[in-house]
Amino acid sequence: MTVTESGTTRANPAVVPAPGPRKRRSWRSGTGEALWGYLLIAPTGLGLAVFYLWPVLQTAYFSFTEWGPFGGHEWIGLENYETLAGDEDVLRALGNTVLYTLVGLLGIPVAVVLAALLNRRGLRGVAVYRALFFLPVVTMPVAVAMVWRWMYNGDYGLLNQALSAVGVEGPHWIADPATALYALALVGIWSSIGYNLVIFLAGMQAIPRELYEAAEIDGAGAVAQFRTVTLPMLSPSIFFVSVVSVIGSLQLFDLVYVIGGSGQTARGNPAYPRIQTVVALFYEKAFVTNDRGYAAAIVMALLLLIVALTAVQFRLQKKWVHYA
Amino acid sequence: MTSRMRHGLAAMVSLVLAVALAGCGDDDEAADGPATLSYAVWDVNQVPVMEELAAAFTKDHPDITVKVQMTPWADYWTKLRAAVSGGEAPDVFWMNGPNFQLYADNKVIAPLDERIKDAKLDLGVYPKALVDLYTFEGKVYGLPKDFDTVGVWYNKELFTAAGVPFPKDGWTWADFKSAAAKLTDPAKGVYGIGAGVGSAQEYYYNTIYQAGGQVISPDGKKSGFDQPASIEGLRFWTDLIKAKQSPDIKTMTDTQPIQLFEAGKLAMYWGGSWNVTEFGKNDYTKTRVDAGPLPMGVKKASIIHGVANVVSAKTKYKNQSWEFVKFLGSQPAAEILGKKGPIPAYNGTQAAWKQANAAFNGQVFLDAVSYAVPYPVSRNTAAWNEAETKHLTRAYNGEVDIETAAKALAAEMNDLLAKE
């Protein structure tokens, strides 16, 4: 309470009409504080500016140029964007990326339910479960991808061995155009569940006990409590996670590269056109076929898509996110 | 405002530094004096022999030391391009066919003609296909280091069990196809061959030339994929998949043909001379496999490729770098290389390589030189290599027939070549 109060006074000096000297002191302490603030965020700010903001601006510029393979570029105006608009590969990659993102969102309800189960009072070994679920998050993505690649092997993989035990002949998960994208999305969900889980658990623990007690007195059972208390109170966390996962999914690359076949491991994968994402396409244009100006245009298009989708999400949040 | 000034200041400081550094590395001063050369390579297995060569060179040139820089294949070209863009290219480095013209055309590497003439070197000591591979617009840019050709690796056990004679010189496509049919045994999950599409060098490039077709016109301006003979060369493989004498490409996406061959599931594997290392180490293949020549179509053909040593156009140590490259291209260096590395390019030094890999019939790969075809390249080879994989995969997977795919590929490749 006091914090807010003093905060308002300082932020809004007009509230306290004060004589000269006091005013001056408040002005001075204000800039001093701001200066310290800027100093403290400077390391992060500089890092962001140098390693994120500056490259983004450069990329935006390069998207209007044609690149030589060893640097050196020539301004060609909108030519890259004109090519982009009529490029079937780009359209297909966009479609794949969006589909992958939508499937990936299914991971959120799973994580919410898991978090609710882990959050029950009196559950034993919570720390162990949490560690297990979090493990994929801290494992190297390439190692994860390699192991899944083995499991998905159509002829010798663990998954199909298990299926054959119950008499089902599994497909070539990664090489079959009908299954490849979903197989990749499953790995994506599996490896992000731990991260989402931690956020949801934190969100749940911040929900005041009294709300559950009140609901209980009103006669709500466990499921009703989850629906009427947990979910609405958790909606800011869910919103955050969905924004972050949409942005993450739209930038999918490593799984496609290692499992799917844009790298050397599975070159000539017949399912590749169905799983090639925008970033995988960008990588091929920029680093394999030496068409960097065009590659820059492709990621600028992706950036616009991310900004647009995120804006839509922020617009929609008013309808379903409750801030306590 | 301030930030722009800071940028300006930083730029000025670096400019002054650059000028000062350039002053230190003045051409005349560094021309023949002591030097430390950087030598970039991509094969970790060859690092010891490269270091041995560097040491042998330093013995003759005590004031020049060579530092071998290993970058794994997956990152080699990306890193090299970045280094070149940043003005930090290694003095001497390995070059391959698909990338060569890009580097020569952009003047990243130095032409060596004058040097070769001054030193009275005879390029006839290297296979002609390799010298041609590293010639751009009439100028030679690299001295061949090693070479590889393609042959048929076969599983002796499976051949004997099926009563099929081993591949021998002069066998034809028809012989190959009947062998593949006899060797295929669905009950045991054994196939005659794996028709891989992910790599061209060991597979369809050979059959295209054997059929009398071509991948790219000799002037490097037109695709050859739409020629009827080239299409026959491709059909060779799609027919094998259709006849189920090769696993389908879904299976080969999950398990690469070489892995299937090493598990005894393929009776034959089209591979390179470089496979001696892998098959010599693998417990299964060590005693069971051997190499034979490729079958002939309308004519004999085997794709030859080799690495060359090139000198950066921007090196501070032009003379010293040339001395090193000259040494690497010499007979003594080739003899050291042959004992521990790939087939040395210098004619007459290949006996050492054969001896070091005596478990297999290495002569097959040496004989192939007489009818070898250089690895097809142009200025931006990688661009149409991607198009090959894209179009041919669809045909190998049975989504379109091979003629349609080859024509679509030729059209896209011609567009890409026009952009070069």
Can you walk through the features of this model?
The complex is a heterodimer of chains A (324) and B (420). Chain A has 324 residues and is mainly α. Chain A contains 15 helices and two strands. Chain A has helices spanning 2-11, 20-62, 79-85, 88-105, 107-118, 126-138, 141-152, 158-165, 180-205, 209-217, 222-250, 254-260, 272-275, 278-288, 292-320, and strands at residues 65-67, 73-75. In chain A, β1 (65-67) and β2 form a beta hairpin. The radius of gyration of chain A is 25 Å and the shape is globular. In chain B, the strands form five sheets. Chain B has a five-stranded mixed sheet. A three-stranded antiparallel sheet of chain B has the order 9-8-10. Chain B contains 21 helices and 14 strands. Chain B has helices at 2-24, 27-30, 47-60, 73-85, 97-105, 113-118, 128-133, 156-162, 173-183, 204-210, 228-242, 249-254, 257-262, 275-281, 285-288, 318-328, 331-340, 350-356, 363-367, 381-396, 402-419; strands at 35-41, 64-70, 92-95, 135-136, 139-140, 142-144, 146-147, 150-155, 268-272, 289-292, 302-304, 308-311, 343-344, 372-374. Chain B is of the alpha/beta class and 420 residues long. Chain B has two domains: 29-148 and 306-356, Periplasmic binding protein-like II (D-Maltodextrin-Binding Protein, domain 2); 150-303 and 380-419, Periplasmic binding protein-like II (D-Maltodextrin-Binding Protein, domain 2). The chains are: A mainly alpha (324), B alpha/beta (420). Chain A binds chain B through residues 68-71, 152-157, 172, 174-176, 261, 263-264, 266-273, 284, 287-291, and chain B through 74, 78, 81, 84-85, 102, 106, 108, 196-199, 249-255, 380, 382-383, 386, 389-390, 392-394, 396-397, 399.
